[in-house]
Amino acid sequence: MGGPRPVSEPSAHRFRKRRLADLEIPDEGTVLVRVDFNVPLAGGEVADDARVRAALPTIEALRERGARLVLCSHLGRPKGRDPAASLAPVSARLGELLGTRVHQAPEVVGPEVRRGVARLEPGDVLVLENVRWEPGETKNDPELARELAVLADAYVNDAFGSAHRAHASTAGVTGLLPSAAGLLLEREVTTLTALVEDPRRPLVVVLGGAKVTDKIVLIERFLALADAVLLGGAMAFAFFRAQRIETGDSLVEEEGVALARRALDHAEGTPGRLVLPVDVVAGDRFAADAERRELPGVEVPLGWMGLDIGSRTAAAYGVEIARAGSVCWNGPMGAFELAPFAAGTRAVAEAVARAPGVTVVGGGDSAAALAEFGLAGEVTHLSTGGGAALELLEGRALPGVEALDDA
């Protein structure tokens, strides 16, 4: 499909925080950079380095300015110090990508870490150990923030995937050092903000996933902002149940049925159209070797569960996406991880990749689906942050962004 699309530079007028180029760094100064290296590991190596690559522009820009870099990230959800959650494999991969040695600290903070920082030369890179080894990280502990701050002269947040968390390394440290947004964080915020504030029309939003409770705020917000909101995934069955349509053994979030009913009523008075699937693909169980049946409509018989949108729905959604000026996609259309039920998500992914307009894809499962189908480079913007992207699109302030110095 021709390779990655060019991504325009962030619109500075939409970004009200200090930018990387405007951050003053002392000669041979040290910069603490919060990155998002929360990547999957397999066999002691990085299995997917997309998030590491996403941080490279900020890292390279600071190295070119002669800064000494101290990188800080979490990895997984360890309960204290856990060697299985060490960032050492990530440091090794980062070194390969940079073409230089990357130093790995043995701890997050402490005397040995401070000695390691003192030995850095201009352009050197040191990665702190998994910041969530420290219990004070998620508690936004002021003492941990102080220990991080003494390592550097300035702070940069480039971890959009963690920007919705008020942690010591994303929020607490900003009050102790001059701070700015990294290039990735700035691009994420400006792109997603533009999508809701000034989109090219028509704006078509495709939402999937399992739970209405996870997406109800987004559904109702986009009904007021978008031209069409197309739904898929297991959450569609809560909407069918709200309409008294039989859902068989499909996964139905009971708490989501009332919310779906509310959204259906709400949609009648909004500019945006709420579009539901017109047919579904069912399986006799949730398994890769399940018997597959494409149903003519959306009513699912007992003993069967809906696991994907049907071909007529996929085609209709493809038409909507093709004529859109802007597309926002968040959440798969079904159980795409099971081969018999991946067609709907694949069809949407291919339609988004072919779309002539601006295409923005949320992180999480949508990003995984694009990667699975080899289409990650075919969209205008692929977000690195699932939860952060959702909260920003919902109109919520992100603590890791709000804490940065204003422009």
CATH architecture descriptor name of the largest domain: 3-Layer(aba) Sandwich
Morphology: elongated
Summarize model confidence as the mean pLDDT: 94
Number of helices: 13
Which regions contain 5 or more consecutive residues with pLDDT less than 50?
1-13
Supply the CATH superfamily name of the largest domain.
Phosphoglycerate kinase, N-terminal domain
Strand ordering within the main sheet: 5-6-4-1-7-8
Q: Rg, please?
A: 23 Å
CATH fold label of the largest domain: Rossmann fold
The structural class is alpha/beta
How far apart lie the N and C ends?
A: 39 Å
Strand content: 5-15%
Largest sheet: 6 strands, parallel
- Fraction of residues in helix: 25-40%
Q: Please tally the β strands and state the result.
A: 17
Number of domains: 2
CATH C-level class of the largest domain: Alpha Beta
Give a verbal description of the structure:
By secondary structure, the chain is α/β, with parallel strands linked by helices. It has two domains: 12-186, 3-Layer(aba) Sandwich (Rossmann fold); 201-356, 3-Layer(aba) Sandwich (Rossmann fold), CATH 3.40.50.1260. 33% of the residues lie in helices and 15% in strands. It contains 13 helices and 17 strands. The strands form four sheets. It has a six-stranded parallel β-sheet. The protein has a six-stranded parallel β-sheet with strand order 11-10-9-15-16-17, sandwiched between helices. A three-stranded antiparallel β-sheet has the order 13-12-14. Strand 2 and strand 3 form a beta hairpin. Helix 7 (236-242) crosses helix 8.
